[in-house]
Design goal:
alpha/beta, 12 helices, 369 residues, binds iron/sulfur cluster, binds S-adenosyl-L-homocysteine, eight-stranded parallel beta sheet, single chain, two-stranded parallel sheet
């Protein structure tokens, strides 16, 4: 039986991420849960997620809605439906809402998002917090949306390793790691609460890369972290390569999910509060197998509020959960999970903490209950 010490160095991070014995893992998760309870309380915040469009100009090689995937039926959620879902979230005491889509950079899109932000703020009397997750934009665009009322932005760096990033994206001049990093810096300059994160278990990713991801969150003084395991989408270049090499067995999937939980726990231990003068508390991650994530130190859940009929068209990866549910079901199911951990729900609170992406995966069983 080992005793978990707070990680201080890159080597410490790697050592914790290397743990595989069930007893050691349980100790790791318990230590992270204790740090969460002490720093941010045993409260879980809900951030409703509306996936409002799957049009995308990018071609990320892992993502199911990449522009080259012509099996996808594209959709734009009608504006009034988005507003109705936002109203539902507000009336159901969600403290905040995230609106997410594929990436577009045209003027019509920029205007549209700006108007949506204003309308959503208005319908909730400014009370519903609003997070945007709509990709890389110019600093000017980010500023317009901020001024319209969006105060949080999620943009995953995906990996802190530029060479690994290059293997995951086409070499077309439009998918540059440096641009993504610069976007995060713009968001910070403007005054957003900035969220980022990575995918865990990518082909070619090392434990050192994952440790560097955690160091990058700390060095960039990130406010919100959304991490999740990489999940195969069958009609993507990376997904096909992973399937062809036999690296998507049940054991491999389980290994990626477990690594995701370790990343939540180790991040919570390493970076319990933000390091800046502002001393914002760091939120944690959104859970993979939700209650497991909460037990490993996460404190934000993102129930899907996407219009039900469009859910089957917003598939970034295969076997996405909750696709056939309506918002009420998602809410009840998640509430039961929160209660099972012994956390309480911070209803109606804008929250000091932020939200993460949902990469919950069906059917993940813990090594130990
Ligand atoms: N277009 C925006 C937001 C939508 S994609 C953007 O790219 O920022 C949101 C996140 O989904 C991405 O950042 C990526 O980390 C994640 N994602 C995409 N494909 C995935 C896959 N196959 N497995 C796990 N996460 C994936
Ligand atoms: Fe588009 Fe985002 Fe998917 Fe990349 S990850 S293809 S930007 S939706």
């Amino acid at each position: 039986m080992m005793k978990i010490k707070p990680p201080k160095t890159r080597d410490d991070l790697i050592a914790l991420l290397s743990l595989t014995e069930p007893d050691d893992l349980q100790e790791l998760y318990d230590a992270a849960y204790a740090v969460k309870a002490e720093n941010v309380g045993r409260v879980v915040y809900y951030r409703g997620l509306i996936e409002f469009s799957n049009y995308c100009i990018k071609d990320c090689k892992y993502c199911g809605i990449r522009k080259s995937n012509d099996e996808v039926e594209r959709f734009d959620t009608p504006r009034e439906d988005i507003l109705a879902m936002a109203r539902w979230a507000y009336e159901n005491k969600y403290g905040s809402l995230t609106i997410q889509s594929g990436e577009r950079q045209d003027e019509a899109f920029i205007d549209y998002v700006e108007g949506l932000v204003r309308d959503i703020k208005e319908l909730s009397d400014g009370k519903l917090g609003l997070t945007l997750c709509v990709g890389e934009q110019t600093e000017e665009t980010y500023r317009r949306w901020f001024e319209a009322g969006a105060h949080r932005y999620l943009l995953r760096i995906e990996t802190s390793n530029p060479a690994l990033y290059a293997t995951l994206h086409p070499d077309d001049g439009h998918h540059k790691w440096q641009v993504r990093k610069a976007c995060l810096e713009s968001l910070r300059r403007i005054g957003y609460q900035v969220g980022t994160g990575d995918m865990i278990g990518l082909p070619g990713q090392t434990l050192g890369d994952l440790a560097d991801d955690i160091l990058l969150y700390r060095d960039m003084d990130i406010d919100m972290i959304g991490m999740g395991p990489y999940v195969v989408h069958h009609n993507t270049p990376i997904g096909k390569a992973v399937l062809a090499s036999g690296m998507d067995s049940k054991e491999e999937q389980k290994r990626r999910l477990e690594m995701g939980l370790k990343m939540i726990a180790v991040t919570r231990l390493f970076y319990p509060t933000s390091t800046s003068q502002r001393r914002r508390p760091l939120q944690a991650l959104h859970p993979l197998g939700r209650e497991l994530g909460l037990k490993a130190g996460a404190n934000v859940l993102m129930p899907i509020v996407t219009v039900p009929k469009f859910r089957p068209q917003y598939l970034l990866y295969d076997n996405k959960p909750c696709v056939d549910e309506v918002p009420e079901q998602c809410k009840n199911c998640i509430s039961a999970r929160v209660a099972s951990v012994g956390d309480t729900i911070g209803f109606g609170q804008l929250g000091r903490f932020a939200a993460l992406f949902p990469s919950q995966v069906k059917g993940f069983e813990p090594t130990r209950a």
